[in-house]
Amino acid sequence: MAYATINPFTEEQVKTFPTTTDAEIETAIAKGDAAFQKWKNFSHADRARILQKAADLLRENLDEYSKLLTLEMGKRFAEAQAETELSAAIFEYYAKNAEKLLEPQDLPVADPQEGRAKLVYEPQGIIVAIEPWNFPFYQVARIISPQLSAGNTVILKHASNVPQCAAAMEKLMLDAGLPEGGFINLYPSHSQLATVIQDPRVRGVALTGSEGAGAKIAATAGGALKKCIMELGGSDALIVLNDADIEKAAKWAVFGRHWNGGQVCVNAKRMIVEDGVYDKFVELYRKGVSALRMGDPMDPNTTMPPLSSRGAVEDLKKQVSEAVAHGAKAEEVPLEMPNKGCFFRPVILTDLDESNPARRWEFFGPVTMLFRAKDADHAVEIANDSPYGLGGSIFSQNEEKAAELARKMDTGMVYINHPTMVKADLPFGGVKRSGFGRELIDLGLKEFVNTKLIDIVDIDAPF
């Protein structure tokens, strides 16, 4: 596994990083464990000061951090700035709320002789975080903020194409005052990562990535009897009902599919439109996609950046070709494309009948699947015909009806009149092959704590 910065816009290799040695792996685990023995005894106020300082440093150096995101994975600079701010907001959320969210909970008991029972939430040790390249700061902030707040320490294995972002996050936490060993970035091989996970000082594993990677890591964690949470792929449905504001729905659909270059697990990848407005929606959607502009991700006029790598481009081309071979119709939107960089013109896929396996794939890039639904129930049926269950959205001016339909969608998140969002104070996670477990708010905070029962019982109480 080669850790290297390759600029997706120029395809030039900027910098390489050596794989972590076995000795460095052992040193990191020992440091992480030693840091945990101290960090778990820090007060909530002391932890909060460090997390707030991390938020402040991100905001004070917003452009510096954001440029690193654009350099390594090709993110539009405006979106890179938004990601950096979102990461700061997550640190700040836990700085302000973690102590209250971790307060001991008194339990109501059926019989006073059962005692005075309460739940307390205690940290356990090192958590391994395995994170993807599409949101190099947000994904890290999303796991380390709650885990550090809970008193755990974290070892990071980031994606191989964002090594500078990984190192920047480690330095950020040290600069914020986190004790050495509290958060450690490594560049391990796959076999070394398995060694880290299996070490008894490691108490949990969190992965965000592909379902293939998730299956392998979950198997390794399971073999070592370690709890894990998996935030995996998605093929979110965006349902448009006959009574929706079609112009606004189409505008949001264009954004929802193409933000971050279409490389988001919660992109609106499948447009499912009721028959009565299908033709109008498609007309507006095609017009919106045609207005996108490919170019330098540092240029504020660019709305369609390059994909993260040449490999990502080739993988997407192969998927589209296979979808067409199985009977789909592919329309390439003829955007003017730069003569350099990892660019991929948007594609709209139609005529994906039930026998076409592509209708159940995740296209990680600007490929849209369009479906015509007979009615609202049929739209939900199409939406649920997927191995994934991450997010989804429903557009309708009848909010009550839309909320009722949302209950029928087999996903972890549903938004009404908006594509799936990522926010500091909203939970994130899915079902089916989109994974298990939740991140953010109190749900993410308690994923890797020991929820311990303490019961004070009268010594003379019967058993």
Task: Describe the model.
By secondary structure, the chain is α/β, with parallel strands linked by helices. The chain folds into 2 domains: 1-231 and 429-453, Aldehyde Dehydrogenase, Chain A, domain 1 (3-Layer(aba) Sandwich); 235-414, 3-Layer(aba) Sandwich (Aldehyde Dehydrogenase, Chain A, domain 2). It has helices at residues 22-39, 44-60, 62-73, 77-101, 138-150, 163-175, 190-198, 211-223, 246-258, 275-290, 310-325, 376-384, 399-408, 441-445; strands at residues 3-6, 13-17, 105-106, 116-122, 126-130, 153-157, 183-186, 202-208, 227-231, 236-240, 268-274, 329-332, 347-350, 367-373, 388-389, 392-395, 415-416, 431-432, 435-436, 450-456. The protein has a 7-stranded mixed β-sheet, with helices on both faces. It has a 6-stranded mixed β-sheet with strand order 7-6-5-8-9-19, with helices on both faces. A 3-stranded antiparallel β-sheet has the order 3-4-20, with no helix packed on it. Strand 10 (236-240), helix 9 (246-258) and strand 11 (268-274) form a beta-alpha-beta unit. The chain is globular. The model has no long low-confidence stretch (mean pLDDT 97).
Structural class: alpha/beta
Residue-averaged pLDDT, rounded?
97
Can you summarize the main beta sheet?
7 strands, mixed
| Strand arrangement in the largest pleated sheet | 12-13-14-11-10-16-17
Shape annotation:
globular
List the domain count as a whole number. 2
